[in-house]
Amino acid sequence: MKIWMKFLLGALLGMGLGFLLPHDNENIRNVFVWLEALSIRVGRYTLAPMLIFSLTIALYELQQDGQFWKLFFSSFLVMIGSGIFVIAAGIIVTLTFPPDRIPILVEEQLEAVSLYLPESVMELFPSNVFSALINEGVFLLPMAVAVFFFAIGLSYDRNYTKPVIALVDALSRIFYHVASFFSEILGLLIIALSAYWAIQYQEVLQTTMFRDIIVLLGLLSGILGFIILPLFLFFLKPKTNPLVAVYGSLGPALAAFFSGDINFTLPVMLRHAKENLGARRRSNTVTVTLFAVFGRAGSAMVATVAFIVIIRSYSSLGITLTDVFSIGIRALLISFALFQHPGNGAYTALAILSLGYGRGFEAGYLILKPLAFYLIAVGTFLDVMIMSFASYALAKTSGFQAEKSLRHFI
User: Which of 77, 123, 237, 352 is surrounded by the fewest CB atoms within 10 Å?
Assistant: First the structure.
C-alpha cells in the first residue's frame, strides 16, 4: 500500500474516533494530548542522525561539483518569490472576500511569545560543537551549520578523508533506511494525531464565529497547494506534469496537516523527494533543510490572513493600504525567522504580528487561540507543499533529478 494511502486511512480512522468521543471529557483529552506528544517524538526520532550524515555527504558532493552556492542562492530566491506570492495571495483574497467579524472574547493574559533571535544566534556556535549535533532535534540550524563546516573539512585532502567520506556515506544510507521503516508505520501515529485534531475541531464546531475563517483558509490553502503553486512547474524545461508532483507530495502533505510539525514531516518529505520526485540526495537534502529552517511562507500567509481578520474584528476603521504593505513585509520577514518553532509556526507568527503591530492589538491573537491548532495545521501543510515543489524544481533545473514512474511511487 502506498504511504499516502496509509496516512489517509489512518487520518480517516482517527477523525472518526475523534468525532465519536466526547470532546469535553478531560480524561480523554489528556490521553490524546499525551499520545500527540509521543507521536511527534516518534516521528522526529530518526531525523537528526539521518540529517547529519545525509546533509554532510550532500554538501561535500555539491562542493566537489562546484554547485553548492548556486543551489543555496537559488533556494533563497525561490523562498523570497514564493513568500511574496502566497502572502500577497492571502491578503488579496482576505480583503476581497472578508470573513465575518469575530466577537472579542474576554481578554486573557498575554503569553510569552518570541522568535528568540538573539538566543538563536548564540546557539549557532555553542562552546562545544558536538552540542549542536546532540540536541532535542527542535532547532535544526545549529546542526546544519556544524555539518557545513564538517563537510568543508572533508574536502581538505582526499587521501586522508576518503575513509571518513565512505563511512559518512554508509551511515547516511543506513539511517535513510531506518527512517524509511518509521515512515511506513507513521500511519498508526496519524490515527492518534488526527483523533486529537478532530476532538479540538469538535469544540470549534460548537460555535459559528470561526466558520468563515476556517472555510477561507481551507479553500485558499487547498487551491494554492494543489492547483496554483503546481502550475509554476509548467515553466520548467523539459516539460513537467504538475499533477505528478502533486501526487508525489500527498504523503508529506497529510503528515504536515495532522501533525502541524515540520520536523515530524521532514523524514517523510526527504523520502518522497527522492523516491517519488526523483530529486537526488545532494540536492533534496540541502533544499528541504533550507526550506524547513527558513522557508515558512505558508505559516506566514496563514498568520497574515488571521491578523487582518483580527484587525477587522477589533476596529471599525478598516485597514489602510499602508497597513497592508506593512503587515505583508513583516510577515515575509517572520517567515524566515520561525526556525525555533517547527510545531507552532502559524500561531507564533500571528502572535509576533499582533505584538509588533501595537495600537491596542497586542492581545489580538488570543481571540484565535481556540483555532490555533487549525492555523498551525493549514500553515504547515502549505509550508510543506511549497518545500516539495521547490525541491523538485531546484533539483530539475540543477540537473539533479530523474523522472520516476508513477507505479514506482511509494
Answer: 237
